[in-house]
Amino acid sequence: MTTTALREPSQGNDAAPRDGYVQRAGLAVAEELARFVETEALPGTGIDANRFWSGLAQLCEEFTPQNRALLQRREGLQQTIDQWHRDHPQSGDGMPPRELREIGYLVPEPAPFTIGTTGVDSEISSVAGPQLVVPALNARFVLNAVNARWGSLYDALYGTDALNGTTPTGSGYDAKRGARVISWAKAFLDKYTPLANGSWADWTGGVPVLSDPDHLVGTIGDNLLLRRNGLHIEIVIDPQSEIGLNDPAGIADIRLESALSTIVDLEDSVAAVDAEDKVAAYRNWLGALRGDLVASFTKGDQKVVRTANPDRTYQTLDGDSMALRSRSLLLVRNVGHLMTTPAVRLPDGTEAYEGLLDAAMTALIGMHDLKGLGRLRNSLTGSIYIVKPKMHGPDECAFTNDVFNAVEDMLGLPRHTLKVGVMDEERRTSANLAACIHAVKDRVFFINTGFLDRTGDEIHTSMLAGPMQRKADIKKAEWIAAYEDRNVQIGLACGFTGRAQIGKGMWAAPDAMQDMLDQKIGHPMSGASTAWVPSPTAATLHAAHYQACNVAERQQQRLAEPIVPVAKLLTVPLAESPDWSAEEIAAELDNNIQSILGYMVRWIDAGIGCSKVPDIHDVGLMEDRATLRISSQHIANWLQHGIIDHAIVDEALHRMAAKVDAQNAGDPSYRPMAGEDRQSIALNAARELIVEGAQQPSGYTEPVLHRARALAKQRI
C-alpha cells in the first residue's frame, strides 16, 4: 500500500464541487442527502435534525482518527510482511506463524466463550435456509428478493436446467416436461414428507396421513402446509387450473419457503460514488423496511407494478390462526473501513469515512421498522441487522463495535439493538476469527466465508512470496479447505447454534441449476445455516437442500471436531514449479482480463454494480467487485514474478476488449473499448488496476473504480 492510497481528502472522488452543499453542525452535507435525511429518514423517529447532525459530527470527530490509524496499521503490517519476503526469497511459503505473532498479525486466542447475542429473529437464530444478496440501487431487484421468501418449485424446475441439465424449448407449455417436473416434485415429497402409505403421486386428496404426523401443520383454504427442519412447504390445491386439472388430487403447485433472509447491499454489488447514489440506495433501504417500496416496469406490452407481499394467515390443525412471513428478513451490508464519501465533508474539508455515514444512516432508517412506521414489519424482535465487510482482524471488529455503541447512543437505541455480521473474507480475520467474534460477541449475528475476496487478500498479503497457482488450482489448495472448516468450527465453538448464522458463499452461475443442486448440498452439510444464491429461483431450489439436511444435527456432529490448526490456513497457494506453457499462461491471462473488462465496463460506464456477465466462454456469471479483486491481484502477482510482462498484458487487454465489445454488441447504450483505449475510461482503469495491483490497499478495487465512475458520470 502506498501513502497515496491513504491520501486525504478522498479515497474516491476528491474533485467534488463545493457548491451543492449545506452546513449542518459544522459538516458540509450534500443537499440531496440533507433533504433526504430531514424530509424522509427523520420524520416519525423522534430524532430531530439538530440532534442527528450533531451526533453525526461527533461520530466523525471521535472515530475518524481511529479509522485512519487502523488503515495505517494495515499498511504497516503489509510492509513488514513484504520486507520479510524480500529478506527470505527462497522461503517457499508465507511468513511463519511465530513471526506473524511477533508483529501482531496473529493475536492470542481468547479463552473459550459463548456469544451473548439476544433478540435475534428465528430466520437468523434457529431456522436454516438460503440467503440472497441484492444491490440496494435496484428497487425492482430488492422487491424480487423481499418476495423470494416463497417460491414455486414447479416453476423453478420447469424454467431452469434443474431437470438433468435440460431447458424448456418453444414458447408454449410442454406437457411432457411438465410431467417430469411433477414427478420430480412428488418424489421430493415422498423422500422428505412421506405419506404413511403410498406415494404423493397417487394421492387423491383430503387430509393426508403422513409418516411423521408432525410434518402436517396447517391449511390455507384447500392448500396444505407442511414443515420439515423448520422450513415450510405449501401444497397448492386448485383442480380448475391447467396443472391441477390433470392431477388426481388437484395439485397445481408445490411452494417452498425459500430465501429466509436478504442482504440489501450498499457495498460490493453497487456502484455508489457520490451523494446522488448514496441517497438512492438509502431510499430503497427505507422503502424496503417500511414495506412501501414500489417498482414498475414493462413486461411485454403490460406495465407491472411490484410491491412487497403481505403476510399470510394459515389455520393450524386445531383450528387456530397462524401467521407466516411472506417476506425475506432484511439485513443491510454497509461499506468497509477504507473508503470516504463526498456526500459529507468534515470541517477541515476532507471527506467523511463512508462506513461511519452508513452506520448512522442505516441505523436511523432501521428505526422506522422498530417504531412500526411503515406498512409492514421486518424484525419481530426489535433488531437492526448490519453486515460489515472487509474488516482486518479483531481491532477493526472492536472499532465497529465501538462505532455501533456510539450510533445507538446517538439515536437513543438500547445497547446491542444494532446487530453485526462479520464477513470472514480477509486473511487477518480468518487467522484470528475467534478473537474477531469475541470483539463483537454481544451483537454478532452472522459470520460467513467468501472465496473470491478471501483469495484476493491471500494473494495480496503474500504478493512477494512467489507466483501463485492458477485460479482453478487455488480453489483446491490446503488453505481453502482449512478456511471453510475453521469458519464453521470456530462459529460452533463460540456458541452460534441457536443464536446466529454461519454462512457460505455465492453460487455464481445462475443458469447452472442442475450443477447447483448437485453441489451446493455441501453447504448445509458443512454445518452452515445459510448460503448465498444468485436469484429467487435459485433460492427455491437451494431450499430443497435444507429439507434434505438437518443443519442443527450436522452442527452437533461437527461440534465434536477439533478446530483445524491455523498453520494450515496460513499455507500460501504458491506454484511449486511454475513451468506453464505459453498457451496455459495466455489462457489464464485472457480469462482474468476478460472477467475484469466485462465487469468494469458495466460498473464504470453504466453504474451497474452486480449483474450476469458472460465469461470468456459466454457463460453468464453473477459478478461483483470480489471477482474483480481476485482477477486483478492474480495478474499483478504474475507480473511481479515475471510470469508475464506489461507488453503481454497490454496485448491481452486489447484482445479481450474486442471480445467484451462483441459480447455487448446488442446493447445500444454500450460504449466500445477496442481501439479507443485513450478514450475508454473502463479500459484505462482496468490497466491501472492490474499494473498497480500490488500497490492497491489490500488489493481492493474501490479507489480505482470510484475515481473512474465519477469521471464517467461527468461525461454523461
Automatic annotation (TrEMBL):
Main enzyme class: transferase
Binding site for acetyl-CoA: 133, 140-141, 269, 306, 534
Presence of the UniProt keyword Metal-binding in the record: yes
Principal location class: cytoplasm
GO biological process terms held by the UniProt record: glyoxylate catabolic process; glyoxylate cycle; tricarboxylic acid cycle
Binding site for Mg(2+): 425, 453
Catalytic residues as annotated in Swiss-Prot or TrEMBL: 333, 624
Modification sites for Cysteine sulfenic acid (-SOH): 610
Leader peptide range in chain numbering: none
Pfam annotation, one family: MSG_insertion
Keywords, alphabetical: Acyltransferase, Cytoplasm, Glyoxylate bypass, Magnesium, Metal-binding, Oxidation, Transferase, Tricarboxylic acid cycle
GO CC aspect terms: cytosol
Gene3D superfamilies, sorted: Malate synthase, domain 3, Malate synthase, domain III
Reactions it catalyzes: glyoxylate + acetyl-CoA + H2O = (S)-malate + CoA + H(+)
Keyword Cell inner membrane recorded: no
Compartment(s) of residence: Cytoplasm
Annotated positions binding glyoxylate: 333, 425, 450-453
Domain Malate synthase N-terminal intervals: 33-89
Domain Malate synthase G alpha-beta insertion: 173-205
Any coiled-coil regions, as ranges: none
Pathway info: Carbohydrate metabolism; glyoxylate cycle; (S)-malate from isocitrate: step 2/2
E.C. number: 2.3.3.9
GO molecular function: magnesium ion binding; malate synthase activity
NCBIfam families: PRK02999.1
Family of this protein: Belongs to the malate synthase family. GlcB subfamily.
Identification of the protein by name: Malate synthase G
